[in-house]
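Justification of computing resources. Each target in the renewal requires a structure prediction run like the one illustrated here; the chain below, 210 residues long, is used simply to show the kind of job we budget for.
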Amino acid sequence: MPPPALTVVASDPVTRDGVCSWFRASGLVRLLPPGVVADADVTVLFAHQVAEDTLAAMRHLVEQAAKPVMKFVLVADHISEVELIRAVRFGLVGFVPRSQGCMDQVLRAVLRSREGGVQFPDVLVKSLIDQVRRLQEDILEPCGLNIAGFKDREIEVLRLLAEGMDTATVARQLNYSQRTIKNILAGLLFRLGLRNRTQAIVYAMRAGVI
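Resulting structure tokens:
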């Protein structure tokens, strides 16, 4: 596997230059020139307190990315639960506390992300798990949804469609009218922003619900 293409973002030029020199000397990454972020596999972002401007910078970098997914390793003093969830949505795959971290840890997070792994302190992993649990219990379950955003009968319909059945056959199998099946599919496509039933089936497969 080729070394990951890496870019470093830091408001302090001294920090940025020092980190770039360290990465360059490691020989384990392909360091991109300053300001070149579109082709990066991973962006290492240095901050102090993670705040709205940090998340805005991540969003801006994602918009510039030439690749489908921009991955971030964030080095900062602290990140709150709310900011953690938002950062994960933008592609956060690693967090190294600035007060405790060293460049070896940052490099490890970069290399793990290239292999599909993540690196978070245990306290952040627990925070993510707790937030997912609260989301499931307080918001999704009262609406009849699972963590992937599907209702039980939507899963039933998609599972039968994935087996090759047409709408009429699915309706007979589930003892619904064809209009009900079409309404179920229309509601699902609208809620998840999907284009058609084929895309819905693929989405459900990737989510592991069928």
